[in-house]
Amino acid sequence: ELADVLGVHRNTLRLYMKCHGVERKYSELTNADLDVLINEFKKKHPDSGIRYIIGFLRRHGIRVQHR
Q1: Which H helix or E strand runs over 42?
Q2: What global pTM score does this model have?
């Protein structure tokens, strides 16, 4: 989306970010901590799927791989 706003291709944006030391990293989180967060979410929303869980984590500033 940012690349579209800037009017450049996403690969160009990635290249500039890499050249200037801007990285998107995953959160430093142990599996146990992640399990606690997901279990907390699932207690409140037992019928919600993976998309809602990812949204919950992002809303709390946590970036994880999907697998």
Answers
A1: helix 31-44
A2: 0.59
Angle at 23 between CA 50 and CA 7, to 5 degrees: 90
For 33, how many CA atoms within 13 A lie in the half-sphere containing its CB?
A: 7
- 13-39 pLDDT, tens digit per residue, is 989 998 998 877 778 888 899 999 999
CA dist., res. 36 & res. 14, Å (int)? 33
48: CB partners within 8 A, 6+ apart = 41, 42
Write out the H or E segment, with its range, that includes residue 59. Answer: helix 50-59
The tokens of 33 are what? 């901590």
